[in-house]
Each structure stands twice: as structure tokens, then as C-alpha cells.
Amino acid sequence: MSKKLTDAIIDMRENDALKITDELLQSGTNPFDILEACRQALEVIGQRFEAGDCFLPELIMAGEVLKQISEKILPLIKGEAKAAKKLGKIVFGTVEGDIHDIAKNIVVFMLDINGFDVTDLGVDVPPAKFVEATKKTGATIVGLSGFLTLAYDPMKATVEALKAAGLDNVKVMIGGGQMDEQVRQYTGADAFGRNAMAAVSLAKQWVGGA
Ligand code: B12
Predict the structure, then answer these.
(1) DSSP 8-state code for residue 208
(2) CB distance 126 to ligand 1 below 6 Å
(3) Is 41 in the pocket of ligand 1 (CB under 6 A)?
């Protein structure tokens, strides 16, 4: 059934994808399995886009479907796992020049329901804005999301701007499509996380809660 969802998204059958999501939820499928089915579909669409087998409208449509599906799913997860106490403050955003936000929204959501007080700065966030928000909130963790190769330099610039502002003790994590350990080294961030759960465990480690 999850495979049916992956195929519906890949084939751009938007209504089918939403219907299958409802059916999966009704049959008690784990919301995380539904998100994984979506992720796989978007990976295929991304590869097709890269190969020139599909174009921007398809990319936009796939993003739109995933947004609608995550809006259906995330509130259900919230019901399950709302943590009572705030473990720490985090400033989060998609870096300058990058507007991919679906993944960021999932990570912010997971941090929130796991007990963190998250300030979400949105997308295309310049380094100075991260610095300003970190100072204002007193956050001890900054999360940088980015999907483009072009996001490497803004990530590096953000890490440098935090240091230049005297926020050396603030821990920085990065993540998103093209990010990996090599990019982490390039940017000078403290850690790279592959998915939302990795973001949660890093944050818990950093506040001493895991
Ligand atoms: C959907 C999509 C879009 C949508 C975005 C919609 C939105 N509101 O987010 C739209 C259509 C707007 C778009 C635009 C563009 N896109 Co685009 N897009 C994608 C696509 C298909 C999926 C991304 C996605 O949301 N995946 C679903 C998420 C949920 O899955 P996930 O990554 O596993 O999520 C986890 C991790 O990312 C992690 N995570 C994310 N952030 C963080 C942060 C931290 C701290 C941590 C720890 C973890 C973490 O946690 C998430 C949840 O578990 C990717 C291909 C891909 N597979 O990545 C291309 C892709 C990223 N796009 C690409 C490109 C080229 C573009 C455009 C430049 C196209 C164009 N010509 O205009 C523009 C860029 C616009 C800009 N300035 O940003 C390329 C990038 C190539 C590159 N090397 O830079 C990709 C890789 C496609 C490809 N293969 O060519 N895109």
C-alpha cells in the first residue's frame, strides 16, 4: 500500500495520492512509513529532474503533494508524542538562497514535539538573521537546512557569523538533500544529521538529555 502511494506521487496522480494517504491512515499505517513512502517518491522525481526527464512544474507539483500529505500526517504524530517540558531553545531555518522548506518543516515539527522550543525563521534566511534570532532567544542550538549545492556557502557564512558575534558556544547542525559529513567539515558546523530523528537525537545530546 505504501508502494502505491510512492507510485501515485511519481505518476503525479495528486488526488490518488491523497486518497491513498487517507486509506493508509485509516488502516493504521505508521505516519513515519507514509512519510518515508513520500520521501522515496520525491527522490525519484529529483533524479528524473536532474536527468532532464521531468521539469520544474513536476517538481513544484511533487512538493505541493508532499506538503498536503505532511499537513494531514504531522498533527497525528503530535497527538502521540507531545512532550511536556521544553528541553532547550533552537533557532532553525533554510539558509540564504534556498527556499526548500518541506523537510525543514518536518524537522522543526519533530523537534517541537520532542520538547524543544523552536524559533523557525523560514526560508532564504541570511546569516545576520540567524545571529539576531540566536541572541534574542538565547538559543543554544542552531539548525541549518539546505537542499542546494548553492547552500554550502551560506551555511559556512552562517557558522562564521555566529562565531564573529561571539556565539562560539552555540552548537550548529546542518541537514537537507545534498548535505553530508564532507559539507559539514566545509561549513565548520558541529554536526550533520540525515533526517528529523537525527536532528532530535543531536539536540538531546547537546542539551544533555540523551
Ligand atoms: C520538492 C523539491 C523542490 C520544491 C520545494 C518545495 C518546498 N516548499 O520545499 C521546489 C519546486 C520549490 C524546488 C525548487 C528548486 N529545486 Co528542488 N527539489 C525538490 C525535491 C524533489 C524534493 C525535496 C524534498 O522536499 N524532499 C522530501 C524531504 C522530506 O525528504 P528528506 O530530504 O529525506 O528530508 C529529511 C532531510 O532533508 C533532513 N533535513 C532537512 N533539513 C535538515 C536540517 C537539519 C539540521 C537536519 C539535522 C536534518 C535536516 O530531515 C528531513 C526529514 O526527515 C529535491 C530532490 C531530493 N530528493 O532532494 C529537489 C532538489 C533539491 N531541487 C533541486 C533544484 C535544482 C531546484 C531548483 C534550483 C530548480 C530550478 N531550476 O528552479 C529550485 C531552487 C529554488 C531555491 N532557490 O531554493 C536539485 C538540487 C541540485 C543541487 N545539487 O543543488 C534537487 C536535488 C533535484 C535534483 N536532483 O536535481 N524543489
Answers:
(1) T
(2) no
(3) no
Sheet bearing 141-145, strands edge to edge: 116-120, 88-94, 141-145, 171-175, 191-192
Please tell me the distance between residue 148's alpha carbon and the centre of ligand 1 in angstroms.
7
- 175 CB within 6 A, ligand 1: yes
- Residue 173 confidence class, pLDDT cut points 50, 70, 90: very high
The span from the CA of 44 to the CA of 12, in Å, is 12
Q: How confident is the model at residue 76 (pLDDT cuts 50, 70, 90)?
A: confident
- Residue 102 CB less than 6 A away from ligand 1: yes
Q: Is 99 exposed, middle or buried (0-12, 13-18, 19+ CB in 10 A)?
A: exposed
Evaluate whether 116 touches 88 at the Cβ level (below 8 Å). Answer: yes
